[in-house]
């Protein structure tokens, strides 16, 4: 069981750094860091005033038109796009929907999807974790800050916090529900074989 | 007195609010009439007039519609409404509206039944009803012709009767009948209902198999099975199976398949079991995704409102907190069980189809998610002990509800009409109105190269179904559920629905109707046709053009060319 714990932890945590390395995505993160403003929520958009004005003109009440369609709502919309991507489990375990993955963005495989069980269990047993609530708070604060820029350039910052909850989930599940841990681990190992192989094959695509 | 009846007063108020939201401009917004809506309406009209559908099949079990099958319950519900309200968009959307509004008190009474502790349940049930009343997800399907909404009502009614029957065994048969109606009411219920029935039976097997319940249980099973039999038999027909196989992820090349990789590890890298499991689980998880629920919404232009997701953004923290509380709070008992069961099984039929997030197929989720958000809201409210803080929170919540209503109005009425007119196939009613004012002796050709408009033509002309059935034979009754080939040309009196064939069509004096691609302004000018009407979408772009051909000019030109 001890070795199984190590294998499961390794397979869970190695995927994201490996994907970054294999796809050379980490270089994009570094290259784009200096260009952060242009990918941030306040980046200028020539089309925005046109869209806002068209929408405003549709309301019989000028107040309503301005209330729902203004520059702030446009920026808020971009902020929400990043925020919801960063709190979406699909982003971390499936790269969103498999048919949604676009080559240009950095929406890579981050954790094996079976590891979602461990994350959920870690969150379910948050009361048992010494740093659980503090780190969950830190996660949401980080998400709020990171949402100011494009989510796929910065989501790696959240890796340690997510790793903490997943590893805690692994340890707690092993201790509290060993049978469930064993079954989940077996599935994780079986499904990790094609997933890890694909990480290497995709390098040549 | 008022205090005693306050829950009932609030329930009436929230139901009335849901009624008003769904009834405002019902039949007018969305302004168009989508082909499925028109087809359902016309088939109901055909059943009313002839006892047969448009293909001449007597009282079908499922309705053949284009290259698909439509569930029968909704269509049969429209039939008695036509003599009262006529064949109008209002009428075809009315069953959805009625059952959507009825769902609101039903949710309240179901929750009260599942958790009889009034002090705990009443506020939770009332907030759930309020959130459901203003829910963009539930509202959308309550204002338009979607069978899923009716199916949801019957599902909840069946569950309610089931729980009542645990004390009154005779109601088990009523519950079985309601479950049997739910199955053919919408396709996804064919998956949800059997799973739910198994789970309910396993959980309540002791009372169900007890001496007092055994006979009603057996009778309910027999009645339910007999009533469901026709729908189940149809499910095995080649036509039905062909449609199902084009939708589900298990018969398609799985997403992520690397076709270029033919190396020695291909059986692992492109392993079907891996890719399909991954796709199914990702689809399944996407129905719980805050990104889909609170930000993106449904990608379909007819199953979403512009700039509005399935729930309001402000509900997100309460969704998380509510989920946490639901899992932790075992005293919620049977309510917790049903909410969890509905939450977990509702996305299954949607997750086996390829679309990323379809709110139509996963509609039963709207109820458990509204309850989860309400639970989060109430538990958050209870965190505060200070009366003043509580008062501030109630006022704040009231303001948020007002904001949500304005947001709903902005998206569902203002923006939807402008940006979603084309997906709702706006313009056919105006086409028919214009054609009715033109020379009735001249034939009309309506182009169907990029659309299937014959249902809308039948609907708005209220064409005699008997004549239509006689002049448009498509399939014999014995092949109704098997052969899905269809005629591309339809004859509706002087109107022929087919692709415009310019060469012969121009030398005949007739009206041509088509979109801006079929009949461009250049073509009108070149062939000296008369533009009689240009029907425009609300954004000013042309939807349809009606022109009169100029055969004299064509003949003269052709004579010149021959010389």
TrEMBL record, chain A:
Membrane-crossing segments per the record: 135-151, 157-173, 180-197
Keyword Transmembrane helix attributed: yes
Keywords per UniProt: Membrane, Transmembrane, Transmembrane helix
Taxonomy, superkingdom: Bacteria
Name of this chain's protein: Glycosyltransferase RgtA/B/C/D-like domain-containing protein
Lineage: Bacteria, Candidatus Nomuraibacteriota
TrEMBL record, chain B:
Chief location of this protein within or outside the cell: membrane
Its membrane topology: Multi-pass membrane protein
Molecular-function annotations in GO: pentosyltransferase activity
Keywords: Cell membrane, Glycosyltransferase, Membrane, Transferase, Transmembrane, Transmembrane helix
Keyword Secreted applies: no
Biological process according to GO: lipopolysaccharide biosynthetic process; response to iron(III) ion
Places the protein is found: Cell membrane
Transmembrane parts of this sequence: 73-90, 121-141, 148-166, 172-202, 214-236, 308-327, 334-352, 358-380, 392-410
Entry protein name: Glycosyltransferase RgtA/B/C/D-like domain-containing protein
